[in-house]
Amino acid sequence: MMIRKNHFALLFAALLVGLVALTASGPLASAATATAVNPSSIADQVRHNLAMLPWYGVFDNLRFEVRGTEIVLSGQVISEHGVTKDDAENAVKRIPGVTKVANNIEILPPSPFDNQIRRAEYRAIFSQSDLGRYTLGVIPPVHIIVKGGHVTLEGQVMDQMDRQIAEIAANSVPGVFSVQNNLQVG
Q1: Cα–Cα 20 to 30 A to 61, which of 1, 51, 52, 99?
Q2: Between the CA of residue 67 and those of 39, 40, 51, 92, 95, what are the distances in Å?
């Protein structure tokens, strides 16, 4: 009988030590997992999640920067799609390994004048035979940002000629105060 009590005491002590070791290693294991997150993998997931936003379109511009496990969102969205700002933050927060999201996305003020310019810019740019191909796909690679009559072209085109054609077309729209061409060739 005495042997049985000792046996149970030893078994209980072993289980208790195992439980303590398992509990103590939990935070360490999750910390090791957090440091093992691949920044390029996070960037790919952020890019994908932003592209999947339902209201993200040609008149919006979303950018991001990965700083370790923190994501900094920036860019501009039209006021009609102001929900895109919150949607972007929520979509990025859910990515495994992301610990913080700084949402610096600007919501452009509502303006009938800017809305007219947006439509005119879209027609002027994408009616060019060389640039029509950029309207294919869910999210065009060229974004037209209009704020207070000032136009900024963001995104990516295939070559320098397309970049120049887009800038010339954007400058041809009446009522535009300035055009900033930030299109990248790549």
Answers
A1: 99
A2: 8, 11, 20, 13, 14
Using left for φ > 0, alpha for ψ between -120 and 50, and beta otherwise, residue 75 falls in: left
136 burial type by CB count under 10 A (0-12 exposed, 13-18 middle, 19+ buried):
exposed
First-to-last alpha carbon distance for the chain, in angstroms, is 81
Measured CA to CA, the distance from residue 12 to residue 168 in angstroms comes to: 80
Q: What is the pLDDT of residues 21-77, one digit of tens each?
A: 444 444 444 444 444 567 778 999 999 999 999 888 999 999 999 999 999 999 999
Q: Please state, in angstroms and rounded to a whole number, the distance separating the CA atoms of residues 153 and 144.
A: 5
Contact 43, 98 (CB under 8 A): no
Q: Is 2.40.128.130 the CATH classification of the domain at 39-108?
A: no
pTM for the model: 0.76
- The string of pLDDT tens digits covering residues 79-104 is 766 678 999 999 999 999 999 999 99
Instruction: Write the class of the CATH domain 112-185.
Output: alpha beta
